[in-house]
Amino acid sequence: MKPTRYFCSPISLARIVVLPVVIFLLSSAAYSQTTITGTVYDKQRNALPDIDVELLDNFNRLILNGGRTRTDGTGRYQFTGLADGNYTIRVYAFRYDLEDQEQRIEVFTSNARGGPGVGFETRDFYLSPKKGGLRDAELSVIFAQDVPKDAERAFAAAEDHFRKEDASAGFRELQNAIGIFPNYFKALMRFGSELYARKQYMEAAAAFIKAAEVNQKSATAMFLLGSSLHYAGPEYNKAAKSALDQSLKMAPNAVQVLLMMGKVQITLGDYQQAEVFLLRAKKASTVKVPEIHKELSQLYGNHLKRYKEAADELENYLKASKLSQEDERKTKAIIANLRLKAQQS
């Protein structure tokens, strides 16, 4: 009896060779489930919400899927499902006038069989004020108040209520604190900020006016006053400009103040000065701030008729933003139209 011969086509042989490799790679991916998390604070250990955080690979490239996030309301960020390797966590704090910061981290896990395992890494950040920014200006000024104990207790209760998202109780306690001590700077600032967040701009402006009277060296109070007046309506933009001028004298490199001044100058019709302030904001920022590029693009396209620069800035806006596919498609169409106008002009 002749021995049975088994023949394998080249395709079958390739499958036999490749299949174990695929299974190994899939199993490695399945079990490489490291999570990197942490909290972003300022130097006073205040947790910072809405901070941009990026995760880069060993070659300083942004991780494609889920490599960009923002801190939540408690200042926490999180990246999940990560394979073993070397990473860089980069924190961008332009919204708070704090210095950007990064940390390197090596992820190495191992299960009982010697393969990739499950890991959990924590990396917290403590950010320093940016020179010439709002926080730097605030910290350079010594301001102290002798606050009545009852007012302090009411303010602490208000903060607790806002943390628990009980806004009505928070506002009630803030009003109690200010009623006890009308010049209570921290309470006035918090009261104005909460009103500002709810787009009650005239009421917010009233709180910031009082706060600025109490502490005349507060760049933040003047900035928030200027912002509130700007958003309250075009008729208040001259007053907004005056407040922002005062803020810039104390914090000349504050990105958000320069950006707001650019917006105000556009509303006032002084487009040359608007460009000056927006370019200063762009230069002062260490990362691409979408809003700056958007304002510059609209300034160049709508008012100065410099279409190539408008298209360039809109390209920068597109790269710096998280747009939906539909919004990205629309933005690219606008860019193409601006480039066509630039060729025709």
Short description:
This protein is of the alpha/beta class and 345 residues long.
How would you explain this protein's 3D organization?
The chain is of the alpha/beta class. It has a domain at 32-128: Immunoglobulin-like. It has 13 helices and eight strands. The protein has helices at 10-31, 134-139, 149-163, 167-180, 185-197, 201-214, 219-232, 237-250, 255-268, 271-284, 290-304, 307-320, 325-344, and strands at residues 34-42, 52-56, 68-70, 76-82, 85-92, 101-107, 120-122, 125-127. The strands form two sheets. Strands 1, 4, 7 and 8 form a four-stranded mixed β-sheet that branches. Strand 5 and strand 6 form a beta hairpin. Helix 7 packs antiparallel against helix 8 (237-250) and helix 7 (219-232) runs parallel beside helix 9 (255-268). It is globular and about 55 Å long. It starts with 9 loop residues before the first helix and ends with a helix.
User: What fold name goes in the CATH topology slot of the domain at 32-128?
Assistant: Immunoglobulin-like
Order of helices and strands: HEEEEEEEEHHHHHHHHHHHH
- Number of E-type strands: 8
What gyration radius follows from the Cα positions, in whole Å? 27 Å
Q: Count every helix, treating DSSP H or I runs of 4 or more residues as helices.
A: 13
The average pLDDT is 87
CATH superfamily placement of the domain at 32-128:
Immunoglobulins
Sheet with most strands: 4 strands, mixed
Approximate helicity band? 40-55%
Strand content of the residues, in percent? 5-15%
Distance between the termini: 89 Å
- By helix and strand content, what is the structural category? alpha/beta
